[in-house]
Amino acid sequence: MARLLELDEVFKRFGGIVATNGLTFHVEQGESLALIGPNGAGKTTIFSLVMGEIRQNSGTIRLAGEEISQLATHKRIQRGIARTYQVPRPFADMDVAGNIRVGMMPDSLRAMLFQGPDPAAELEIARSVGFREADLSRTPSTLSMGDLRKLELARTLATRPKIMLLDEVFAGLTVGEIAQISELLAQKRKEGMTFVIVSHDLRALEPLVDRAVAMTFGKQIAEGTFQQVMGDAQVRAAYLGQ
Amino acid sequence: MGALVTKRQLALWLLFAVVMLALPQFVSNGTLRIIIFANFLAIFAMSWDFLSGKTGYISFGHPFLIGIGAYATAILSYRFGVPIAASIPLAVLATMIGGTLFFLPALRIKGTYFALVTLAFMELMYQLVQVIRPDLTGGTRGMSGIKTLLSGAQPNFYFSFLLMFSIAFSLWLLSRTRLGTALDAISMNEEAVSGSGLNTTKLKLFAFMVSAATAGIGGAFYVHYLGSIAPRALFDINFVFTIIVSALIGGASTIIGPMFGAFFMTFLLEYLRPVLPGSERYLVYGLIALVLYVYQPKGIHRIIEDLRKGMGGRGKGAADGKAA
Amino acid sequence: MIQILIQGFLLSGLYALIAVGFTLIFSVGRVLNLAYGAYLMLGGYAYFYTVQQLGVPKLPGFVIAVATGALAGLAMYQFLVKRLKGDHVAVEISTLILAVVIQAAIVLLFNESSKILLPIVDGVWRVGSASVTNNILTAMVASWFILGGLMLFVKRTHLGRAIQAVSMDAKGAMISGINTDRINLTTWAISGALGATAGVFFASYTQLNPSMWVSPLIIAVAVVIVGGIGSIVGSLIVAHIIGFMEIITSSLIAAELRGVFTMLLIIGVLVLRPQGLFGRGDL
Q1: Distance CA C268, CA B67 (A)
Q2: Cβ separation C32–B128 shorter than 8 A
Q3: Which chain A residue lies closest to B174 (C-alpha atoms)?
Q4: Which chain C residues have a beta carbon less than 8 Å from that of B56?
């Protein structure tokens, strides 16, 4: 299998705090990787680095063998990276269809000016995350947390990603909503999507991943199957305080 | 064309144009002069709206852009005898260059800080215009006797309306495209727009350029309507206030809102004249603006929409109101 | 040379006084009160009305002026800012509108012409060839006392520490049992009182007119932006940079250019170093 995303000796500090300390790991094409660790371990920082929202102090990030660590965020998205956030922040004054529409837009002023939206494709993406046609005209303020997560997945799926970085995708959801989102992710996995998932809900996380990387204080402490990593003494000490 | 436009909307635009163009048959020249002013204010308010209303980069210094357009054509035609047909396009070009200057801070800062930089731009321009080359700018007193395009209330009314109407219609069409949607999205969550693979710098630059061109056109034609220009009245925080209030009262980011906001505010000011002579009417004017703004920051446009929704189904309107 | 030095210190002292109330609001609520200049105007006009039109003695007149500012601050917070909570841009736009409304009210009450405010303290003080009015000297001394007092107040008193806590972390302060709403209200009142105090001195240094609120507002903005949030010492330094630059430009280059440096400073610092030269950054 080919490596889709690779981080090589990635180092990032904020003032005196080292957020990622020479981190090296990779994700295979079609693989689903769990990124686990206590609060403040640097998981969200990794996502921001991969997205280009912040820049590493040193090290390289590669997508499908091509270095992307100096590219602007939108260029990385165009190459197939997508991310969701712990707290979903949709375009608040736009309905569900509008949010998806922004995700689908090509990065070309000409196309944005002279080609209209594609409502059929918007509906298809909305349906693929479990919305119904009637939901298209709903505004985010009327959506539940579960629906907001779905909306964010829909907006990121609209960019046609190769790899999705999901940050605390189960946070704030009811049991029913967790099942719904899990099913959705399992379906996407079957279709060949590559994932990196951060979650504190280990029970929901386990069936969705092939492999796990555990980290604390910006350093990788274990890697392997989910069971191996969770059984690791260092991980238990860092994560569960045992 | 990629704009989402219905036949009904086009019919309304047509109706608006027909009614306005028929107006000189029914109203006095005095009223026409008020509408001429409203037309120009509408252009300025829409220029502000396309930048600030859409992208959320609030400009407190819009007269900086308007002033570049106005001064450029005034100096070219008055001091160098350049024909208006050439001086106005050059002025618009100059305004767009000024717009680029305006745009640079927007690469790094947003929100309050951006607003303050634009305010500083305006104040800087105000002070520099008076001191640097007063032989060209006319210094503190400005210039008068600048060539006017047309004379008489009716020709000026027709002209200013057609100018305003074509700008309004074009900006409205622009805002109905996917590009307009993307600009709106920037004001809501700029990170998510880049996160959708869109180059926000390019989008913002486009908005700044359209806004600057509009401000330049408005400023240049306004000078050739008035025939004079003075720094005090132009680079004035009260002028900023009038522009922003028109846009906000009408409804930011809607283009149509600021246009009607400009008409509303101009007529409000005019109808207050018999009741409150002198500049005291700014008090009532400002208070009305303040109350409206605090009651519904999204303007009359939204109030009307809410009312319309309220008739359809109360529950939904109430939920929306809460979110806003 | 000595004239420039003296005038520089005096003007800078006045500017520090103008900026301090504005800084206070910015550090506590993170909002820019664009109606801050209106406090100065209200203070100046209140003093003018009571002392020069009603003939009230100077000290009670001064107290009334300060109280007017404090009341204006209270009202602004209670009726405007509180309602727009969280939306900083809305606060800025609405306080800008409010400033214009207050300007119109002043025109309505006192008409548009400029008024001369007699010196609060009479007399002239001579140092060698240079001379300064006791009035502006008092302004500078008052400014130093007020700044010192404010620092003591913030560091030593219970209320002051509560204000400081809110400025650092409003949520944390709330959880620790501080009534943030009352702290905000108090801060706005203090800011109004400080603004009005500065206004009386500022008006006696220049003159009273209905658009006098703009230039002190810009100075206050510059001091806060350039000095950095919540840094009283930073504000003091920047007030001196701006004060001295103004005196130097107006006496050595051209009087009309005195404000240009301030504008360039605002633009330059905001674009290159948005967190200010001395303060902690917070966008």
Answers
A1: 22
A2: no
A3: A113
A4: 89
Distance from CA of C108 to the nearest CA of B (A): 5
Cα angle value A111/B97/C89 (rounded, 5°): 75
Closest-CA residue in chain C for B277? C108
Q: How much of chain B, in percent, has pLDDT values that exceed 70?
A: 94
Q: How far apart are CA C32 and CA B120, in angstroms?
A: 15
List chain B residues with CB under 8 Å of C112.
279
d(CA A40, CA C169): 20
* pLDDT tens-digit profile, chain B (324 residues): 577 888 999 999 999 999 999 999 999 999 999 999 999 999 999 999 999 999 999 999 999 999 999 999 999 999 999 999 999 999 999 999 999 988 888 888 877 788 888 988 998 999 899 888 888 998 888 999 999 999 889 999 999 999 999 999 999 999 999 999 999 999 999 999 999 999 999 999 999 999 999 999 999 999 999 999 999 889 988 899 889 989 988 888 899 999 999 998 888 888 877 777 766 777 888 888 888 888 887 888 888 888 887 765 444 333 333 333
Q: Which two tokens stand for residue C157?
A: 């008193």
Which of A29, A14, A9 has the alpha carbon at shortest distance from A210?
Answer: A29
d(CA B183, CA B190): 9
Q: What is the pLDDT of residue B1?
A: 55
Which residue of B117, B238, B280 is in closest CB contact with C100?
A: B238
Q: Which tokens hold the place of B235?
A: 């680079």
A154-175 burial, b for 16+ CB within 10 Å, e for fewer?
Answer: bbbbbbebbbbbbbbbbbebee
* Substitution target from B4, B174, B178 for chain A, most A beta carbons within 10 A: B178
- Helix or strand (DSSP H, E) at C256: none
What phi-psi label fits residue C126: left (phi over 0), alpha (psi between -120 and 50 degrees) or beta? beta
Q: In B, which residues are within 8 Å of A114 by CB distance?
A: 1-2, 177
Token readout for B241 is 């206030």
Residue of C nearest to B276 (CA): C108
> Which of A83, A107, A139 shows the shortest C-beta gap to B195?
A83
| CB nearest B192 (choices: A91, A117, A142) | A91
Tell me the count of B-C CB pairs closer than 8 A: 120
Contact with chain A for residue B194, Cβ under 8 A: yes
Question: Tell me, what DSSP letter sits at residue A68?
Answer: -
- What one-character-per-residue DSSP string does A149-174 give? HHHHHHHHHTT--SEEEEESTTTT--
ipTM score: 0.91
Q: What is the pLDDT of residue B300?
A: 81
Give 10-residue mean pLDDT values along chain C (283 residues).
82 89 82 90 94 91 95 92 80 88 89 84 77 82 86 82 78 78 90 94 88 87 77 81 88 80 84 67 35
Q: What is the mean pLDDT of chain A?
A: 91
For residue B181 the two structure tokens come to: 């949607």
Q: DSSP assignment, residue C118?
A: P
- Tell me if A59 sits within 8 A of A9, measured CB to CB: yes
Name which of B186, B198, B199, B208 to mutate to probe chain A: the one with the most chain A Cβ atoms within 10 A of its Cβ. Answer: B198
Q: Best interface-test mutation with C: which of B103, B281, B282 has the largest number of C CBs within 10 A?
A: B282
pTM of the model: 0.89
CA distance A136 to C174: 39
DSSP bridge partners of A223? A213
Instruction: Tell me if residue A211 falls in helix, strand or coil.
Output: strand
Query: Which of A92, A102, A113 has its CB closest to that of B193?
Result: A102
- Which residue on chain C is closest to B126 by alpha carbon? C260
